[in-house]
Design a protein that fits this description.
The protein is mainly α and 180 residues long. It is 81% helix and 0% strand.
């Protein structure tokens, strides 16, 4: 083998080595870009879901606060009944919007369960206004407890969808027995 041939072989081996190293580096770089893009996509989806869930929680708390006043109110005014109706509609609209954005069945089931409980409470408030039912009745207590259970299920479903892990635990204070 001549000196020229040896130099050509050495140059070829060096070029092949550089090509292999360059390909490996390019593959690693592309893989890292794909991982980063996937992480950014997941973060954006998580951010969107967390904001939507926060909107639902806010609507749920506003509705619960308004309906909670009905339990203690001796009578229901037309303005108050309209406020409860409006807050129920807001809650149902936020839930309907979320059903278009998410595909998590446990979340959907929990949300629809809460909206159904909210509808029952909304109807009870309206019935109290129209039928002059007494305040503090047993049906209202039962409906509020069902709403609290549904609220807890929603919070756990949202938490599980966003973070996973163990569900929240709850200690519900015992309600005093009521007559009626």
């Amino acid at each position: 083998m001549t000196e020229t041939q040896a130099a050509l072989y050495a140059a070829a081996v060096g070029a092949l080595s550089a090509l292999v190293v360059g390909c490996i580096a390019g593959w690693v770089a592309l893989r890292q870009v794909a991982k980063t893009a996937e992480a950014q996509r997941k973060q954006a989806a998580w951010q969107l879901r967390s904001e939507d869930y926060a909107d639902f929680i806010r609507a749920m708390f506003r509705f619960r606060a308004a309906v909670g006043r009905a339990e203690r109110a001796p009578d229901i005014s037309a303005d108050y009944a309209n406020e409860v109706r409006t807050l129920y509609i807001d809650l149902a609209n936020v839930a309907a919007t979320l059903t278009l954005r998410i595909a998590a069945d446990p979340v959907m089931n929990a949300m629809l369960g809460l909206v159904n409980a909210a509808y029952a409470l909304h109807s009870r408030v309206t019935d109290r206004r129209d039928l002059h039912l007494p305040s503090g009745d047993a049906m209202m207590h039962r409906l509020l407890e069902e709403f609290e259970d549904a609220e807890f299920a929603v919070r756990n479903a949202f938490r599980d969808d966003l973070w996973g892990g163990e569900p929240l635990q709850r200690n519900r204070p015992a309600r005093p027995p009521t007559d009626s």
